[in-house]
Amino acid sequence: MKFGNVLKVCSILIIFIVSFSFAQLAGQLPLAPNSVPQFVDPLPHFAGARLDGTTGGTLTISMEPYQQIAVSTGTVLALGTAGVTPGVGMTKVWAYKIDDGTNTYGPLWPAYTIEAKRGIPLSVTYVNNLFGETYANVGLVVDQTLHWADPLKAHGSLAAYTGEPPAVVHLHGGEVPSEYDGGPDSWFTPGNAQIGPSWASGVSNNYEYPNTQEAATLWFHDHALGATRLNVYAGMAGFYLLRDDAEDALMLPGWSGDGMVQEFDPVTGTFGTAYLPEIEVVIQDRMFDTNGQLYFPSIGINPEHPFWVPEFVGDIITVNGKTWPYLSVAPRKYRFRFLNGSNARFYELWLQDLATGTFGPIIYQTGTDGGLLDVPVAIDPNLGQKLLMGPGERADIVIDFSTTPNAVWTLRNSGNTPYPKGAPPKGSTLGRIMQFVVNGQGTDNSQLPTTLRATPLVKLTNFAGGLNVTPAKKRQLTLNEVIGAGGPLEVLVNNTKWDGNGTAPGLGETEIPTEGTSEVWQIINLTADAHPIHLHLVQFQLVSRQKFNLNKYLKIYTAVPGAGPQNPYNTPNADGAVGGNPAITPYLQGLVKPANPNERGWKDTFIMLPGEVTTVVARWAPTDRPTTASASDLLFAFDPSSGPGYVWHCHIIDHEDNEMMRPYKVTASPARTADQGQIGAEQIALTLTPESFILDQNYPNPFNPTTQISFQLPEAGNVRLAIYNTLGQEVKSLANSAFDKGAHNLTWDATDNFGNRVASGIYIYRIESGSFVQQKKMMLLK
């Protein structure tokens, strides 16, 4: 079948799926989207009410059943539109509740936003409190024919799963050890009664987030194998904003010295709640029934998977858990953290006046998934420009409403489904997201700087086809759709199933990069859809995109559907690329397309368009290390080779849940092992020839539970060595006595002066000897 015909078939199938599956569970009737009033309820948000994790500590995040009003009620507001009441009752969801030891936040969909600080780790205990809950309680059905968590060991059953929900939390975009990554096999049921296979590799429900990466908009969401689409749909998602001092110094809207804004209340006609003008915005399409409950299509198109829908797209837009809300804004600059949290829908966003058709203010994108861009990028609707977002992508943006007082701007959407050549959204429903009503009041002490980084973004590429690093490996990997009797049966990365075609789960890794090295991945999209591909652990950069002759390539592509690549994976092809696929170079067409200006940053999710080769470069190292850094400087703050490993997958989560995901492992850098030997050699040398005062970096670092602190004295004298917390309070005195000339080693066992175990976090060790004073930081990770 030709490429164009495949696309038409897929578009028809998606429309058919949504229509046919109206014959839903237990008498549910779908709510007509045009019966839901728009822009009558205010946008729920957490500005001024976020959970402060910037000083570290421990959080308990539990998964709870909850009811909230998600569908607008139709109340007539002064600035709204009258509408009919679409349903009765409250929407039942499964949501996250967060406890910081003093206050409880939620449960709520989406979860209360967590703010964290770079360099200050945060401990989190996750608790599955969905006791007695079944998926039917929230209008969902688990397809047990998928490769999924399977707590009751009933894989292959054509019946719906009736047990309690398995769940696990993934910090999307987080640079974390794999034990704390929330991988798909790290799931657990209420009370940890059943646990996933990754628990045998050091996983538990106690996580440590080091927060050592650059400031960025992260988010946390469920990631249970084969049930992610259902658990996230039920409400389990929230923002995690990682901040640092450099970002605060930019004085973007919402920085600590910005002015307060008062939101206008159209009911009372007065100015109400005060908050800082930085607001998180998660866009999720949903369906509801006539009682206001969640509605999810659950009739599959292939008998092999009776309940799996290839790509769910809803007919009602929710923003922060509310259908088509509005936000009252002051005539000033605002910073928004946008997230596409939908299952499969892509969005093309811009602002417009619905009454006049006039285009609204320019959207200035200041950051991508992994942090700030070098400079703001203008997305101007007057030039036909729109903000494109695939599922899982984030965009940090600034909008200046100061030039349009008393205006009403609607956030519009023109993203086709499936993207990019499917059906356009209906303009009166899916073509609208939310509304901004310019009528608030407040000061504006913020700015939109022309330069966003004091130190330019580290660039592994010139974003136009060239590289600034020498890759250790080049991979050419395919995206494949397997068609069944009724349509798509499964979608795969590199034509390979999750478990590696029959190998034991967790042992089928083919992508095994080495810490500190860079790799070029060329993703060859053989399907009719765009796919947002997400890598855990690392951020990566877009080198280029280029079209290829799909039909000619398919003539020499002979891989058996679902059985892996056609050639041995590690045998380089004519392009020098591993992956087991025919070389793509002879089939490339047209010019190399550079990354768009707003894509020229660090990202963990990139859109791979159909009929194109998307080339990205990833480096398994912290993003702020220069391209000239030595191997010993390209180490994570933890050993990425420990634990169960990571995954890469499509973030159309209906695809991810049905095989479009692969495990990968990271090999520890040789420099990590070499450092151990080097430290030993230095200690011997210091013993023989001490010539100056030196305080070494502790080793290991991070550590648990003990670490060694070494120092050198050029002459005998009194030494005071103590451990302090980040508040400057002494935690432990390791020494306060006379030491001989030479090298010395002391060990800290993570206890305080009273013998109590201390919490995970950043600690400072300080040495004083005569006029010599020096201190260094270290990290305890439990």
Give structural notes.
The relative contact order is 0.12. The strands form 9 sheets. A 7-stranded mixed sheet has the order 15-14-13-17-22-19-20, with no helix packed on it. The termini are far apart. The protein is built from 6 helices and 42 strands. With 782 residues, the protein is mainly beta. The chain folds into 3 domains: 3-442, Sandwich (Immunoglobulin-like), CATH 2.60.40.420; 473-668, Cupredoxins -  blue copper proteins (Immunoglobulin-like, Sandwich), CATH 2.60.40.420; 678-780, Immunoglobulin-like. The chain is globular and about 80 Å long.
Keywords for this entry:
34% strand, Immunoglobulin-like, seven-stranded mixed beta sheet, 782 residues, globular, mainly beta, 3 domains
* Portion in helices: under 10%
Instruction: Characterize the main sheet.
Output: 7 strands, mixed
Judging by the overall fold, what is the CATH architecture of the largest domain?
Sandwich
The CATH class label of the largest domain is Mainly Beta
